TrEMBL record:
Pfam families: Rotamase. The keyword Isomerase applies. InterPro entries: PPIase_dom_sf (IPR046357), PPIase_PpiC (IPR000297), PrsA_foldase (IPR050245), Trigger_fact/SurA_dom_sf (IPR027304). It comes from the Bacteria. This is Peptidylprolyl isomerase. Residues 122-218 form the PpiC domain. GO terms for molecular function: peptidyl-prolyl cis-trans isomerase activity. Keywords: Isomerase, Rotamase.
């Protein structure tokens, strides 16, 4: 009876969901829900500087977009290692904001900031120190010897018998000065330096890293909270393993996913350091001692901290696996990024990589659409020759008349400028305003002054109404040819596909 009721309620739930988010279109048998279309439609129409599209116009664009993505999937572009790694990297980055309680995290950071402002740890302190590193396994003899030496250095500094900077250079394991902010260095270090004034030198003191004599060089006031908030959270995490916002979220998720510890397994693990028993359940799944052992190998700490870390990681990993189900906006962003990657890759292969090297195709397109590229005003195609003497200018012009245009510059360089530069020349296609000498002589507009070293100017070329070769309008042509290839590609995709639009659901877009 219970299973029958479960099926009935499940069917009712699916029916309600289908009514809330109905199928808007079906492309090659794949359903597209209204929510996905609305998300992209509203997002793109909200972008400033983008031409606003009507609903029907955007439906066409959306269908073309989905057909291109489907073509990329058919080629297996979504299965490559590079694609999967980039998508997973984006997912990890996006998930960060979903795996912490932002309110609690900001409140904790604010409390730390207020403490920093209220005591001497506000701002930053730049320090230099005489530092001797001491390993955790240091013998008592090494500790005594190092401490005695540092005491002697401190006495010499106090009596003016030693220079601090010289001691840093000669004795310290750390030579460079550095800035210290709260929660950046060990507490013992910060307790000392934040009480000191610029120019003051500390007595020798120990930290977990070794023994120090510190000199404060300068101090800076604390920055505004918004400028340091993220850094405070990062330092809290480094020092304590997890920030307050994440800890708060974990506690909420434990309740949501019915985290249930197993006392027998927990007690055995804490007593013996290992167990084969169940430790806890989460979301209906059992987490065992063997799973903990695998975690512990990668996190060498005390057993209590290891267990706490394992529980937190398990909770966060479970939440990470459910983000698409739990948060529609997360699912939409992931879908958008995934489809965008596929669109870029397939467009690159079908269009963008092809255009620069398809000389035959561009030439054929230009011949067919030549009239589209006629100019409103004529251009000058040729060369402007500036020469040291009028005689040389005539010789240059006579020589170039007998040669193809592509050989003109080499002929000038080898014949007239080999030993001494006698000619300066500009060759190309010139519109009004491109070259003052062309404007003067050819277009009869602006008056040009002669070049002092090459005062005689002559021309070889002609005025033309439109380009003679596609190379002369290559930049403009490339964009048009790209659009032409895309139109043909979309037409092929459309012809090979079945697209069904639910017009009744389309009428409800943004109206439900």
């Amino acid at each position: 009876m219970r299973s029958g009721l479960t099926i009935i309620f499940l069917c009712l739930g699916l029916t309600v969901f289908a009514q809330q988010d109905p199928m808007l279109m079906r492309i090659n048998g794949k359903d597209i829900l209204r929510s996905e279309f609305e998300y992209i439609y509203n997002k793109n129409n909200a972008l400033s500087g983008i031409e606003q599209k009507t609903l029907n116009e955007y439906v066409d664009l959306f269908v073309n977009f989905k057909l291109k993505v489907a073509a990329a999937e058919a080629m297996g572009l979504d299965t490559t290692r590079a694609f999967r790694e980039e998508l997973e990297g984006y997912r990890r980055q996006l998930a960060k904001t979903y795996l912490t309680d932002e309110t609690v995290s900001e409140l904790a950071a604010r409390q730390i900031y207020d403490k920093m402002k209220a005591n001497q740890r506000a701002g930053q302190v730049r320090v230099s120190h005489i530092f001797k590193s001491l390993p955790q396994t240091a013998t008592s003899h090494l500790l005594r010897t190092t401490e005695t030496r540092m005491d002697s250095l401190y006495t010499a500094l106090q009596n003016g018998q030693a220079d601090f900077d010289a001691c840093v250079r000669n004795f310290s394991d750390e030579k460079k000065s550095f800035w210290v902010s709260w929660l950046q260095m060990p507490a013992e270090f910060e307790d000392t330096v934040f009480k000191m004034k610029p120019g003051e030198i500390s007595r020798p003191f120990f930290t977990p890293q070794g023994i120090h004599i510190v000199k404060v060089l300068e101090r800076k006031d604390i920055l505004p909270f918004e400028d340091v908030k993220d850094e405070i959270v990062r330092r809290q995490t480094r020092r304590h393993g997890m920030d307050k916002g994440t800890e708060s979220l974990v506690e909420k998720l434990k309740k949501e996913y019915q985290y249930t510890p197993d006392k027998v397994g927990m007690d055995e693990l804490l007593a013996k350091g290992q167990t084969e028993k169940k430790l806890f359940t989460l979301g209906g799944r059992e987490y065992t001692g063997q799973m903990f052992a695998n975690f512990a190998i990668a996190h060498p700490q005390g057993i209590q901290r290891q267990l706490k870390g394992f529980i937190m990681k398990s909770v966060l990993d479970y939440e990470y696996s459910r983000l698409e189900q739990k948060y529609p906006e997360f699912r939409m962003l992931m879908q958008e990024y995934r489809d965008g990657m596929l669109l870029f890759e397939i467009s690159n292969r079908e269009i963008w990589e092809r255009v620069p090297s398809d000389e035959v195709g561009m030439a054929a397109y230009f011949d067919k659409h030549r009239s589209d590229y006629h100019w409103k005003n004529p251009h000058y195609k040729g060369i402007v020759i500036h020469s040291a003497t009028k005689r040389i200018g005539k010789q240059v012009r006579k020589l170039l008349k007998s040669l193809p245009e592509e050989e003109w510059q080499d002929a000038i360089r080898l014949t007239f400028n080999a030993k001494k530069q006698q000619v300066q020349a500009e060759q190309g296609l010139f519109a009004l305003g491109d070259n003052i000498y062309v404007d003067d002589e050819i277009f009869k507009k602006e008056k040009a002054e002669p070049i002092p070293s090459f005062p005689f100017t002559t021309f070889l070329g002609e005025k033309i109404k439109g380009p003679e070769s596609y190379q002369e309008v290559r930049g403009l042509l490339a964009g048009d040819y790209q659009n032409y290839l895309e139109e043909r590609w979309v037409a092929r995709l459309r012809a090979a596909s079945k697209v069904e639009i639910n017009q009744e659901v389309l009428k409800t877009v943004n109206k439900h």
